[in-house]
């Protein structure tokens, strides 16, 4: 558990027991960035019957862990995250992101740190690098507020509805 911009947060790495190489590559990346170096690995068993259910349950695990540990923010990475930036630039973006979430203007529950947009991007701040997207997929890194974690923790899995 760490604190940045007055917010208590935990960095989570979502992975499976089988993805050892991806897990190590991701950990090597995250440990180079001071604010991301304290990583909690949530290692799931692959759900061979329903991979979507497995993904859903992995995300519910960080939500529950976040609530149980009274955190303000979760920084969630998938084990296939890729960042093409220097650790200092990543550190700066982490700081900016935490300040942005703390400001709550505009209010956000999820801040995607990296994803493939499926819709036009819209800038949120006049001088910042924050954008929003109506739809996205392939999200590999995000910041989540406690409020949203509490909502996720109440969800039930139904195929095709998460």
Secondary-structure element pattern, one letter each: EEHEHEHEEEEH
Q: What distance separates the N and C termini?
A: 28 Å
- Report the structural category: alpha/beta
Estimate the mean pLDDT confidence. 79
Describe the 3D structure:
This protein is of the alpha/beta class and 162 residues long. It has helices spanning 20-30, 51-68, 87-103, 146-154; strands spanning 2-4, 7-16, 39-44, 73-78, 110-117, 121-123, 131-133, 136-145. The strands form two sheets. Strands 1, 2, 3, 4, 5 and 8 form a six-stranded mixed sheet that branches. Strand 1 (2-4) and strand 2 form a beta hairpin. Helix 2 packs across helix 4 (146-154). The protein starts with a strand and ends in an 8-residue tail after the last helix. The relative contact order is 0.19. The model has no long low-confidence stretch (mean pLDDT 79).
Name some characteristics of this structure.
single chain, 162 residues, alpha/beta, six-stranded mixed β-sheet, two-stranded antiparallel sheet, 4 helices, globular
């Amino acid at each position: 558990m760490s604190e940045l911009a007055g917010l208590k947060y935990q960095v989570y790495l979502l992975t499976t027991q089988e993805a050892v190489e991806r897990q190590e590559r991701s950990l090597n990346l995250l440990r180079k960035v001071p604010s991301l170096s304290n990583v909690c690995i949530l290692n799931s068993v692959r759900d061979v019957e329903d991979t979507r259910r497995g993904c859903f349950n992995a995300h519910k695990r960080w939500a529950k862990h976040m609530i149980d540990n009274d955190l303000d923010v979760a920084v969630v990475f998938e084990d296939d995250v890729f960042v093409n930036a220097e650790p200092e630039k990543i550190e700066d973006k982490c700081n900016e992101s935490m300040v942005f979430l703390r400001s709550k203007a505009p209010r956000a529950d999820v801040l995607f740190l990296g994803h493939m947009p499926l819709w036009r991007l819209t800038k949120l701040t006049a001088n910042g690098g924050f954008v929003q997207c109506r739809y996205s997929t392939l999200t590999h890194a995000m910041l989540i507020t406690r409020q949203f974690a509490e909502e996720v923790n109440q969800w039930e899995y139904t195929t095709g509805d998460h």
